[in-house]
Amino acid sequence: MLKLDPPDENDLKTLGRLCKQPEWSAHKSAWENAYTAYKIAAGNPWIVKSVVFAEDIGAAQQKLYDNRKQGGAIRRIRDTAGLKCCPMCGSGTTGTLDHYLPRAVYPEFSIFSLNLVPACSHCNSGEKGSTITGDDDEYFLHPYFDTLAQSAIWQIRFERPLAAVRFTPVPSPDLAGVPAKRVAFHIGELLGGQFNRSMDTEWEALPQRLRDRLEHLADIRPADAALEIRRQLRDVIGSDGVNSWPAAFLRGVLADPEVVAHMATLATPLVAAALP
Ligand SMILES: [Zn+2]
C-alpha cells in the first residue's frame, strides 16, 4: 500500500484525439463528464456512478485498453519506477496494472490514467476481483487520492496457539472510525493465499535473523530481541515501505510481547542448538 502522485497524463487530450474518430465522436461530452466526475469524487465508487453508454460502446471501451496496454501512457504507469511495494496490497512485487474501478463495470475508465494503478499480479489477477464496495463507507484505498497510507495503517495479529500460528491482518490500533473501517475492508479483501505464505516465511525466518545479529549474546532476552526487531523494522520501512508486508509483520511482533519472547527463545543459541 502506497500513496502515489497521480500520473502526469493529459487524459482529456487523449480523449479529444480519440473522439475525432467517427465511431466515438458522439460520446465525447458524456465521456469527458465521466472523467471529471471521477476526479472530483476521487474515484469513490459510492459517488462515481457508471455512465450508461450503449452496450456495444462499453465493450469497445474495454477493448481500447487491450489495444493500448503495451504502449504510451498505460505502459508508463505500469512501469512506474522506484515503487517500494505494490501500491494496492503492499506485496513485494509490481509489474502489472490494476483498474481501480474494474473495467467490466466501469468501461468508460478503461484507459483513464487516474483509474490505472501499478500493482502486483495478485491484485491484478483476482484477489480483488469484481468487488468494489463493502458496507456503508467501505471501499478500497486509492493510491492517487487517499493519503492514509502515508503512515502505518495495518499490522499482523498472531492467532494462538503460537505453535500453529495463523496471521490476521488488522488496522493499526491508532485508527478509528471511517479510516479504520476502510483499512479493514482493504486488507480483508486484498490479502489472500500469497500473503499467508509470505507470513509463514517471515515467521520461520525471524529467529535466524535475530540469531545472526545477536550471536554475541549467550542469552537473548526479549528486550534484546525487541531492540533488534525495531532496527529491522526501520530497515524494512526504508527498503519496502511503511505498509509493506514485512513492515506489517514486524509491527505486529513488536505489539505482542508474548511473540517477542517466543522469538527470543527460538533465537537463543543454546535452544537453537537443541532443536532438531
Ligand atoms: Zn498487490
In short:
The chain has 276 residues and is mainly alpha-helical. Strand 3 and strand 4 form a beta hairpin. It binds zinc ion (ZN).
Give an overview in words:
With 276 residues, the protein is mainly alpha-helical. It folds into two domains: 11-127, no CATH class; 151-274, no CATH class. Helix content is 49%, strand content 7%. It is built from twelve helices and four strands, in the order αααααββαββαααααα. The chain has helices spanning 11-18, 22-25, 28-40, 55-68, 72-78, 121-127, 177-190, 193-213, 222-240, 245-254, 257-267, 269-274; strands at residues 96-99, 116-119, 154-159, 166-171. The strands form two sheets. The protein has a two-stranded antiparallel sheet. A two-stranded antiparallel sheet has the order 3-4. α1 (11-18) packs antiparallel against α3. The longest helix has 21 residues, at 193-213. The chain is elongated. The two termini are 38 Å apart. The model has no long low-confidence stretch (mean pLDDT 93). Residues 86, 88-89, 91, 119-120, 122-123 line the site of zinc ion.
Feature tags:
single chain; about 280 residues; mainly alpha; 2 domains; two-stranded antiparallel ribbon; two-stranded antiparallel sheet; 4 strands; about 50% helix; elongated; binds zinc ion
What is the element layout, followed by pairings?
Layout: H1 11-18, H2 22-25, H3 28-40, H4 55-68, H5 72-78, E1 96-99, E2 116-119, H6 121-127, E3 154-159, E4 166-171, H7 177-190, H8 193-213, H9 222-240, H10 245-254, H11 257-267, H12 269-274
Antiparallel strand pairs: 1-2, 3-4
